[in-house]
Amino acid sequence: MHGSDVYKCFLTNGDLSLSVTNIGCSIVSIHTPDREGISKNIVAGFEDIKQYFVNRNYFGCVVGRYANRIADGKFVLDGQQFLLTVNNDGNHLHGGVEGFNKKVWKIDDLVESKDDVSVIFSYLSKDGEEGYQGNLEVTVTYSLNLQNQLSIVYAARTDKPTPVNLTNHSYFNLAGFANPQIYDHLLQVNASYYTEKNQRNLPTGSLLPVAGTALDFSTFKRIGLDIDKFPVDFGYDHNFVLKKEGQDANAIAAKLYEPLSGRLVNVYTSAPGMQVYTANFWDATIKGLHEAPYQKHGAVALETQSFPDSPNHASFRNSILYPDKQYLSKTMYEFKIE
Length: 338
Prior knowledge:
Blueprint: E1 8-12, E2 17-21, E3 26-33, E4 39-41, E5 62-63, E6 69-70, E7 74-77, E8 80-83, E9 92-93, E10 106-112, E11 116-125, E12 136-145, E13 149-158, E14 162-163, E15 167-168, E16 171-172, E17 186-189, E18 191-197, E19 203-209, E20 221-222, E21 237-242, E22 251-258, E23 263-269, E24 273-277, E25 300-305, E26 320-321, E27 327-337
Antiparallel strand pairs: 1-2, 2-3, 3-4, 5-15, 6-9, 7-8, 10-11, 11-12, 12-13, 13-27, 14-26, 16-25, 17-20, 17-22, 18-19, 18-21, 21-24, 22-23, 23-27, 24-25
């Protein structure tokens, strides 16, 4: 598979520019202006796109079939137990050893209209891959419009029942990494609850309130204020239960703001949850597109998703895709200056 042709595609609307590669369907860079009009790349990425075949920190890639963890790599579906590959503390993480992030995706189309420009990727995950049953046909569409909105639409169909949970794993530093940590970024998350987890980063099945805890981002809060309250995780690594007002499927999930540059990102999604992860294990050994090596707490990932380990928790929203249904999930990032 690594012998397949690899490409980098560029999308721009004049103000913003985006580059993506078909290795892992990965976002390589997003250049946005600050309040002085100076444009910088606000996501972590590699100069050499072949590094995306390794990419142990999941920079910018699409992860699947199942984002986040499945306990012990096991689940029961329709009375049959499935054993998945394990790659993280005995658990299945982000699709396993050779997940979607390491695959060379097909570029189906580049589409330009009056209002936006899009690139469409596809990948066929074959029956048995990483232990999952069913041939899963996946498409991911990146679209950039004139309103400075980047939409990601994930779609999939299967010929056998299978768990599906797709997300993008971009890391944001809205200072363009001019500040090597994101402690002064302000974060707001539209959630009153989070999924409680144990020492192995697995959900217990309980939903706990964020109020009065270090996980309360109901209003803008400095990320650095309480980041040291999680010594086991070395920072934030938690799934938030997103509020869904009425029937609005694409509700606001989060707002991320960097005061010095004025850059603001609004995140909207149809997904029920969002993992907030603050690059807790970056160790300054990786130098990417930016001048300095990426340091611990150098960026934050806002991974819109189904809840972790959903196949093993009947109380969580169903994440099983059946042959007569289509998986469809949408996340939109809106870039502003304030």
